[in-house]
Amino acid sequence: MKGNNGKVFLVGAGPGDPELLTLKAVRALGQTDVVMIDDLVDRRVLEFAPAARVIEVGKRGGCKSTSQDFIERLIVRLASRGKIVARIKGGDPFVFGRGGEEALTLARAGIECEVIPGITAGIGVPAALGIPVTHRGLARGVTFVTAHSRDGTGPDWAAFARVDTTLVIYMGMQHVAEITAALEAAGMPAATPAAVIQNGTMEQQRHVIATLSTLADAARRAALGSPALIVIGKVVGLAHPAQRAAAQRRIA
Amino acid sequence: MKGNNGKVFLVGAGPGDPELLTLKAVRALGQTDVVMIDDLVDRRVLEFAPAARVIEVGKRGGCKSTSQDFIERLIVRLASRGKIVARIKGGDPFVFGRGGEEALTLARAGIECEVIPGITAGIGVPAALGIPVTHRGLARGVTFVTAHSRDGTGPDWAAFARVDTTLVIYMGMQHVAEITAALEAAGMPAATPAAVIQNGTMEQQRHVIATLSTLADAARRAALGSPALIVIGKVVGLAHPAQRAAAQRRIA
């Protein structure tokens, strides 16, 4: 079976700006017969795959979307017919991208799979505001989590409050008030700088900069929604003055 | 003063493989008069800056290296003479890259600075072994830390043991035994899968895959050294079978 198989590239497109694609991703796209692209990925990346058939596989937190099972069956079917397939995801395929599941499914089917990393939103989006997520003296490091895991439970926020890393929460917009309240209850200071950034690195980027205790209200007043990232920690205090001013105007 | 100033790009070159450079980084390099490049960055990236003067600013954990102060003074001097400067760092400039310090120094000097994110080693290097750092059901997320912070103290490993994220430790090769012992003492199971990966994503990549209790010995027997990454968590168990076999041969 292996002889007739194609190949799958699991490609990270980065946080939004199409220029954050890597050279390796561009080279892979140029070789592909089929591109399977997520909703949140900028369509300009398709310019690098001019000969490819494009399949839209809408996946969007909370909304109606193509099921993961269906996507995986489709990738296997295409690759086992000899196609070179690029599966493009926002951010990095192995950071909250379900790329691990897809890689395992392909391995079980005996199909070659190459993972091409992308800039994850948790690093690239704060950087767009001037926020260095691991700044020495302000953070020991950085933690990326989602608000809820597969079993529906939330993280042990008390443990996160103790860890002294910048906390970056993906897909958390439904839970800003709950998360910030839990961290405050766990002993994180109410004045800890915190931000919500929607559509980071894209033209339509919008954000608020507040504190742990005021973040939920600020995000609500600015009418921010998904896709967005929550960033909590002293490093948020290093955001560019211009970005702080823009955030102020937004919630005034 | 502002009128005569040049501009500085703080560019992340990614974990090693020069193809992991972004399109934005390539565009910036093409505009630069001067490139300041770290020791650990592959020299092939200089092909994208054919007209630039190249300044080597050796920075390497533990060894004799150009001081951070000197580097910052040099960047400011060049940019304030109107030069377009690209400061290239391994990985991402804002993840343990001292990019935050450089950005603040430039802001104080009134010099324009643009940060161009790169693939951080903590994501790209495990991916090269097939390890998805946030795989659902195996990890709630991922934490990046260094073994020691500016004040010389180590992290609160007991808190990290409770957090249930994949733990990725940068610049920790001097402390593998100490870190793994502390995590085990804090209640992390001795059988937790763990890896050390040296020169990840480069031709000379070498690694071991072991458990929390056997990692330090395995890394020593395989004679692994810096630059390397330590990855601890159930997700390490998803490394490609071929990578597992290579690791076995290395410590046999």
Structural notes for this entry:
- The structure is a homodimer of 252-residue chains.
- By secondary structure, the first copy, chain A, is α/β, with parallel strands linked by helices.
- Chain A folds into two domains: 7-116, Tetrapyrrole methylase, N-terminal domain (Cobalt-precorrin-4 Transmethylase, domain 1, 3-Layer(aba) Sandwich), CATH 3.40.1010.10; 121-251, Methyltransferase, Cobalt-precorrin-4 Transmethylase, Domain 2.
- Helix content of chain A is 30%, strand content 21%.
- Chain A has eight helices and ten strands.
- In chain A, the strands form two sheets. A five-stranded parallel beta sheet of chain A has the order 3-2-4-1-5, with helices on both faces. A five-stranded mixed beta sheet of chain A has the order 6-7-10-8-9, with helices on both faces.
- In chain A, a hairpin with a 7-residue loop joins β8 (193-198) and β9.
- The longest helix of chain A is centred in the N-terminal third of the chain and has 13 residues, at 68-80.
- The first copy, chain A, is elongated and about 60 Å long.
- The relative contact order of chain A is 0.15.
- The mean pLDDT of chain A is 92.
- β6 (141-146) of chain A pairs antiparallel with β6 (141-146) of chain B.
